[in-house]
Specification:
single chain; 420 residues; alpha/beta; TIM Barrel; Beta-Lactamase; 2 domains; 8-stranded mixed barrel; 6-stranded antiparallel sheet
Length: 420
């Protein structure tokens, strides 16, 4: 391509000439390929309906045989050709989206970090594209896909350009490669799309499922709405509901469909999915009830012996002798540990030399721990935490805590039990 040809090819009206009617939709031509748009619906779980569509390019050869998008994106051999392909796709998607019987919901468009940072050097193409189609920018979500870039500042400036236009921005494939919290903090997107690998792993690993809940919570605290992509089974859909994401996308709800009438699959019923989730939650027996019933008598035994003046190591034998208990310890209401920890000698973590520097907790300050705060708020009631990583041995545990009165002093007795 000559410089003159490059300049013409990147112009909106020149790109317009690459499109042609294909039944009720539009297609475009690029380097011997016919390009069509496939739309995949995106659903809000709370609203129980479609709130947007992701536009995906589908290439075909001259004989009408479908080709992989990966093959299409390998065709450009220069920066200008990459920019041209990107603009042809965005032009095509917007032209087809205008034909949808929908004048409210979002259009999600993918853009690579390299393309948007380089594209701004040519002109403000996307702003002109919005004007060309008289399309409201607040209905566009620009997705920054998971690709590395060596120019983070230019990427941030490019994303800011779309924000100034009035578009929403999203980070795609969060949790894979370069789409991580650093990119969230730098770009401050409106929406974060979780990579499919997260829900796949969460469906087979309980710890990752718990982490997923925490990741969604952190993203919400960062001011981002969260979309789970790649949901393909009912089990994965239930995990998406449970972890608190706002939006879902995937084959379970709707396949990407070429044409201008993309619809959910016939058996997609968000109301039924949410009913099933509610029934599942209601049907689960609260495990903390059984834990309280089992351990409360043991705690009372320890409390009675502490009140009699016995040191904790002797008073806590009913707890440390239990096969699930790793350690027992006591503190004042300010969280300062009193005396040494009473450890269970039968537990393998008590003899793990790798964490020997963490073993001695005498006079340790546990004021920041949730189990202390909960005990202080609920005197004489046994409190139970969720599973967390113990600082004393780097194993997953659950802490039980109880605030009681001994003479004129308020004390808190705690024990850690294995979470696995």
């Amino acid at each position: 391509m000559s410089k003159t040809t490059d300049k013409i090819a990147l112009d909106i009206h020149s790109i317009d000439n690459t499109t042609q009617a294909f039944g009720a939709e539009w297609s475009s031509s690029f380097m011997g390929m016919d390009l069509r748009t496939a739309f995949q619906p995106i659903f809000s779980l709370s609203h129980k309906r479609i709130v947007g569509y992701e536009a995906l390019v589908r290439p075909f050869d001259r004989e009408g045989q479908a080709q992989s998008p990966g093959h299409l994106f390998q065709l450009p051999q220069s920066e200008q050709e990459n920019i041209l392909l990107d603009r042809v796709c965005r032009h095509l998607h917007m032209k087809n989206f205008k034909c949808l019987p929908d004048d409210i919901n979002w259009l999600f468009i993918n853009i690579s970090p390299k393309t948007i940072t380089k594209g701004l050097r040519y002109d403000s193409f996307f702003g002109k594209l919005l004007e060309h189609f008289n399309f409201p920018p607040h209905r566009v979500v620009i997705e920054v896909v998971e690709q590395p870039t060596s120019d983070s500042d230019s990427l941030a400036q490019a994303v800011d350009y779309y924000k100034q236009l009035g578009c929403l921005t999203a980070i795609d494939d969060f949790g894979a490669g370069h789409s991580n919290f650093e990119r969230v903090w730098a770009l401050k997107p409106d929406i974060v799309k979780l990579d499919r690998s997260m829900i796949v792993r969460a469906s087979t690993d309980g710890r990752i499922r718990q982490m997923l809940n925490g990741i969604v919570s952190l993203l919400h605290q960062a001011g981002c709405l969260v979309l789970m992509e790649g949901v393909e089974t009912e089990d994965q859909a239930m995990i998406a509901v449970d972890c608190g994401v706002d939006f879902v996308q995937g084959f379970y709800f709707a396949m990407p469909q070429i044409g201008i009438t993309p619809n959910p699959l016939p058996d997609t019923d968000l109301s039924e999915l949410l009913r099933s989730y509610k029934n599942e939650v209601k049907g689960k027996i609260d495990p903390t009830i059984a834990i309280r019933d089992h351990y409360f008598p043991l705690f009372n035994n320890v409390v009675d012996k502490v009140r009699e003046g016995l040191p904790l190591r002797q008073a806590a034998t009913s707890l440390t002798g239990h096969h699930t208990v790793t350690r027992c310890y006591m503190m004042d209401k300010n969280g300062i540990q009193i005396g040494e920890t009473a450890s269970s000698t039968r537990n393998i973590t008590a003899n793990n030399l790798k964490f020997k520097p963490l073993e001695n907790t005498q006079s340790a300050d546990w004021f920041r721990q949730h189990y202390l705060k909960r005990a202080l708020s609920n005197p004489n009631e046994l409190q139970i935490t969720r599973p967390y990583l113990s600082i004393t041995g780097a194993y997953m545990c659950v802490t039980l805590s109880l605030l009681f009165q001994a003479d004129d002093q308020e004390l808190v007795i705690c024990c850690d039990i294995l979470a696995d």
